[in-house]
Amino acid sequence: MNKLTAVFDLDGTLVDTLPDFTLSINRLFARMGLAAASEVELQPMLGDGPTVFLERALAARGVDADARMQADFIDDYTDYAAVDSQLYPGMAEALVALRRQGLQLAVCTNKPVASTMLLLRALQIDELFVAIVAGDSHPFRKPDPRHLLHTLQQAGTQPSRAVMIGDNRNDYLAAQGAGTAFVFAEWGYGQLDGPLDIHGMRADSPLQLITAVPQLLALAQAG
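^ thats the sequence. predicted structure below, dont judge the formating
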């Protein structure tokens, strides 16, 4: 098949999931007698999957995470991953427009598969993606490029015919290692300082993806 493909990170790129992460963390904190955390405090901690997120949130309260806390948080978040999470404004239109341009769509996320699928189904976008590869559905995770390469393999496409869209340095490093073009989602949770390489650009809003993704793919095909 080898169709042109746009690969999306999930948290902070496709969907604003911070509200539900915050609710789950604060339910755990309440059970532990810890002070609640704000979205502003927690936002920089996202990007490496929920286990690392929990470790960072607990460390900010002077607590080391153990297996019981991790299981408690994962169970809670998996049950309530789609309460207040929403697609970013303009994302639905961007996904439709990219598909109309002949691109296929995929997801490459460090989020566990259970909460990934619950969220995508709740938002009624799961069927838009030809491949959905989560953090526990492959031995490697971003920034390891093998996570992205496996996603491309599942989508039936080559790195030179794909663009990775993400809001985190992990996404950029995975794209560089895999040899794909990259769009940094400025609307997301992460920061990426400095200029991108010649195969990358920044987008201020999801609607900019409608032109940015085909532009990068055209440049990649040209040489």
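The mean pLDDT is 95.
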